[in-house]
Each structure stands twice: as structure tokens, then as C-alpha cells.
Amino acid sequence: MPEIQWRIILVVTCGAILFFSLYCFLLDITTVFPNLYYFPIIVLSYRYRKQGVLLSCLLGAAYLAMAGYFQFTNALEIAGALLRFASFAAVAAVIAYLSVTVEKRQLACRIVSEFNESIVSNANVWLAVLDARGTIIVWNKAAEEISGYTAGEVVGRNIIWRLIYPDAEYRRTITEKILPIIREKKIFENFETEVRTKNGGTKAISWNTRTVPDETGAMNRFVAIGIDVTERRRAVKALEESEQRFRRIFETAKDGLLLLDKETGRITRVNPAIEEMLGYPAGEFLGKTLDEIGLLKDHGRFRKIRELLDENGFVFFSDIPVESRNGKRFDTEVYMVDRAMQVQCNVRDITGRKQAERELSRRNEELRAANEQLTAAEEELRNHYDELYRVQTALETARRKLDLLNSITFTDIQNAVFSLSGYLELDKNAPGGKRPQFVDKQIAIVSAIAESLKFAGQYQGLGLKPPAWQGVMQTFLFGVSHLDLPGISRDLGVDGLEVYADPLLENVFFTLAENVLLHGKTASRITLWYQETPSGLTLFFEDDGEGIPPGMKEKIFEKRYEEKKGMGLFLTREILSVTGITIAETGEPGAGARFEIRVPAGAFRFRRPEGGSSPDRPLP
């Protein structure tokens, strides 16, 4: 009942009793009705305890006040009212005490009951309580999990036995075995059966059952405890299979196998392979230690080996010399493994393997030497191939340039010859006064033809020979050796530098130095130095003459311009371009000419001269 209802009932009851008491006092009735007070006092004290006692006292005080008011002249009635008040208070106190005591006992009983139910419910074994007819009374969680059937499906029924033992013959056999045991001993233990679970699977259960009394004390109830031994059965079966496999492997292994007692180190079992290896029959191994049969003589007593086994779980010995019974010597590997109660010792003959390893090592060394030779040859071939490819590319470039130059020269000469023929025809028919003009024109045309032939003679050597690595210092010195450079100093910072260029590279330096003589005028110094860049290397040819005007920096390399000044710089650019080298003039007018010769990566290298070294970064 909700608390609010209790309070309403108590308030209404107390109010009714107080009104009834007032009515009785008004009629001068002082007996019987005071007994009505015990009902609310008992309920208040039982339900609210200390508060109930106080409320009961307040209710008794209300009665005492009415009695004093209406019977104040009757001393006997006043005394009776006081006794009743005391009785009310005493009854309230006793009831409150009994309420607390009863509640404590109920709580203790409930805790014990819940604890027991928790033990039964949460036990990790199948626990069921059933009566003599097999009707299930208790079915715990483990029973639900193992069988798949919930308590709601089986409690109060005995159909579960037909469900978990669907085979009638098997069920009858089990019943015939169980009943006599229960009748005679009231208990049976470790009785294993196979049950069918709800999902159709099969599990092995080990039953332990005993009789317990029911509510009347009759021994006609049974507590059945079932332990799922399915995994244990599988483990036992797996262990048996493992032992069979081990026995089969042990007997057929090609390595020699010995089993040693873990405490004493004495041999307890050997396989046929070790018998054949050492030449002893099995009986002569048993009871002996490893050193007694010629194994591990120099590795201390078995106690030290056992310490290593306890620490690592295994011990490995390599290159152990062994002598058989007939005096045959061979090399072995000994591998010992801790097997709980025993130590397994594997002995492998590695004589053949070591011979094979030595032979393999010799062959590997031969292969390594051959591989090094092949690698060197391959590297040499690769270098030759790269060099040939570079030469071929340069020659192809030179041939294309040579064809172009030949075509240009041929065209120039052809045009000049055509013009000369025209002037000769005019000269035949011209009056005497104009003939000198035609003769001058003819002489100029012949001079142009001579210049073209001279230019052709210069570039005919282009591509005649393949490009080669050339020392910049030596090539420069050879180039300027044909010139007289009075009063012009040379500052060279190209020691050890080589470039891959056409053999006409000498002409390049000759032409650059010749231009200093012809156009430098105030030049007093020539500087040749280099600087490496991310894309390659730049070679600088500088003088301190007048320099070249900005508008002429590119024109000086053009053929039409060179026809007036000579073919030098035009041919210089063509010679360098055979191997991908470029040239440009970047000097400041008035500060001297500055030619930057840009050499691509792979077209330059450094050689350390004998007896000295070249700077990594020469400065001008």
C-alpha cells in the first residue's frame, strides 16, 4: 500500500477516535472507548517506530487532556486516565522495539536467502533441483547457458529430460543406471552422459547428484550438479593424439633423439636413429648420462645444463665432435628442450652439411670473383657505350652543322659567281669610262668568294674527329700560342679542369684572344676562371678592355655580321654547340668583355695534376 494511503487511514482513524472520545466524555462515558486508542498506537509504533512512539504519546496526551477537562473533579477517573496514558506509551515503545527486531531478522533472512540464490544462480556449474518425478524446481544460469533452455521453459515440468536425451534407448539406459545408485547410496558421482543442447549440439556432462529433504523433511528431492567436460574430453583426446604423433615422430625421426630424466640427466628412452648413429643398442643407452655415451664431454655436468634449461627453456650446442662405437668421427649439433618432466635431446649429424657449406663457400667465392669481373666489364662496357653514344651524338650534330655551313657557303659563292658573271657581261659592252667601276665590283666579289673559301677552310675540320676530353689550361695555352700578346697579362684559374668538346676547342680560345687584340684596344689582362652551378659549370673569359655595347652582344655571333668582321665568333659558337656547350657575352660596356661559356653537367670533370692539386672553387 502506498505511504499516502497509510497516512490518510491513520489520520482518519485518530480523528475518529478523538471525536468519539469527545462524544463519550460529553455523555459522561469514561470506560471501554479508551481501548480504541490501541489500534492507531500499535500501527503508528510498528510502522514509524520512534516517530510512531512520539505520535502515540501525542494521541495519549489528547486523551489525557479531554479526561482532565471533563473529569477534573473525579480524582479516580484522573488517576485511571494517567494509567491509560502510561499504558499507551509503554505499548508504543514495546511495539516499536519489536518492529525493529523483526525487521533486522527479516533483513538477515533476506540477505541469506539472496546470497544462497546468488550462489545457486551464479554457480559456474549446471545446478538443478528436481523432485522424485523429475520435475524441475530450480534451474540456474549455468544450466541455461550449457543446455540452451531457460528456466522459464523447464521449471515446473519434467519434459527437459526428453529434450536433452532425445534417444529413448539412451535415456532408458541412463535411467536404469541412475535409479539403483540413488536407492542404495542416495548419491552418485562423476557419472558422465552426453546431452543434446537446444541448438542441436552435443556436450559431455559429468553429474554429481544427492538427495535433499523437502518442506516436510522427506528425502524425495534431488540436487543435480553437472560439469561441462566437453573441452576436457577434447583436450584428453588431443593429448592422446599428440602422444601418438610424438611417438611416431620419435621413432621415425632421422635425427638422434634421447629422453633424459630432468633431475638426474640419465637416459630413459632413445630412438632408432641414435642407435644407428652411435652404434649402440637401445639397452646400452638406458640409465647412462650423455658424457658416458660420448656426448657433451667438455660442457660440464648436467646440473649446469639444467640451469640453462630452466632459464631459457632450451640449450643449443654447435660443432660437437662425436665418436661412434666403431671409431667413426663426425660433427653434430645438439639441441636440448625442456619437456616438463623430461628433457628432449636432439642430435643431428652435420658432417655432410659442413662439407657442403665449405664447398658452397668455395663456389660462392668463385662466383663473387666472377661477378666482380663481370661488374667491372659491364661498367667498362657501359662507359664505352656512353662515350660512344656521346661521340655519335656530337658527330651527328657536327655533320648537321657542317651540312648547313656547306649549304650556306655554297649559296654565298653561287650568288657571288652569278653577280660576277653579270658584271663581266656588263664589262664587255660598257663604254670605256665605266669599266673601272665594274672592275672594282668584280674585285670585291672575288674578295667575298675568297673570304667564303677561307671560312669553309676553317669549319671543314668541324666534326672531322670525335669530341674528346681536353684540359682547359693546355688547350687555352695552345690556342693563344699563335698570337703575340704584348703587354697583356694572363690570370688562369682552371687547373685540373677538363671539358668534353670538339677538337677545334683550341680555335675557340684563339678567336676569343684574337678579338681582345683586335677590339680590346686598352685591354691589359685576360682572365680565365670557372664556377660550378646547379646545372653544370660556367667558364668565364674576361678582359679589361672597352667592352661590347649592349646592342651588339648577340649580333657578334651572327654570320651576316661576321662577314664584315670575320667568321670567328660565329664559328666559335658552332664548335662549342657540338657537345651542348653555349656561349654568351655578358660584360659591362667600359669594363671589358666577358664571355660566359656554359658547360652542361656530364661534359666537365676535374683531374688532379701530378705533384699538386687544383682548387675546388677558383676565383678570378
Distance between the termini: 114 Å
> Strand portion, in percent?
15-25%
Shape: elongated
What percentage of residues falls in helices of 4 or more residues?
40-55%
Estimated radius of gyration: 62 Å
Average residue-wise pLDDT: 80
Please count the helical segments: 18
Q: Which CATH class of the largest domain applies here?
A: Alpha Beta
CATH superfamily descriptor of the largest domain: Histidine kinase-like ATPase, C-terminal domain
The number of domains is: 5
Largest sheet: 5 strands, antiparallel
Structural class: alpha+beta
CATH architecture of the largest domain: 2-Layer Sandwich
Number of strands: 18
Strand order of the largest sheet: 2-1-5-4-3
**Which ranges are low-confidence, i.e. pLDDT below 50, for 5 or more consecutive residues?**
561-566, 611-620
CATH topology of the largest domain: Heat Shock Protein 90
What is the topological layout?
Elements: H1 3-26, H2 38-48, H3 50-70, H4 75-122, E1 126-131, E2 136-139, H5 141-147, H6 151-154, H7 160-164, H8 168-185, E3 187-196, E4 202-212, E5 221-228, H9 230-252, E6 256-261, E7 267-270, H10 272-278, H11 282-285, H12 302-312, E8 314-323, E9 329-339, E10 342-349, H13 351-429, H14 435-459, E11 468-471, H15 472-480, E12 489-493, E13 497-501, H16 505-520, E14 525-533, E15 536-543, H17 559-565, H18 568-577, E16 582-585, E17 594-600, E18 604-606
Parallel strand pairs: 12-14
Antiparallel strand pairs: 1-2, 1-5, 3-4, 4-5, 6-7, 6-10, 8-9, 9-10, 11-13, 13-18, 14-15, 15-17, 16-17
